[in-house]
Amino acid sequence: MLRSAWPEAIERETARGAGRIFLYAPPDGGAAVLRLVADPPNLLLHIAAGAILYDPAGLLRGEGRRGRYVCLGALAREEFPALLALIEAATASLPSAMENDIDYQPGATA
Fold this sequence. Notes:
- The chain is α+β, with helices and mostly antiparallel strands and 110 residues long.
- The protein is built from 2 helices and 5 strands.
- A 5-stranded antiparallel beta sheet has the order 1-2-3-4-5, with helices on one face.
- The longest helix has 12 residues, at 80-91.
- The model is unreliable at 96-110 (pLDDT under 50).
């Protein structure tokens, strides 16, 4: 789903315990904009600039200064269009030198 929503993104994968983390960054380099955390039983999509996104469906969780996340496992099928709109908004007008870096840090939530 993320690859189809943002096909030009550069994807990196890292391991964390039994889980996996997929980082999605702009094609011209820069920090990750999206981070998919597959760490059973959780499946979370972290959005680096989630705090400033318009979220009428109320999908975003967390209270970080910049980042927010969506619990993908809790989404209903009818909420997918709202999720795709969030991804599009997060990736629509990225500066080439984005300062939001959401690379994994132990204990970080968003």
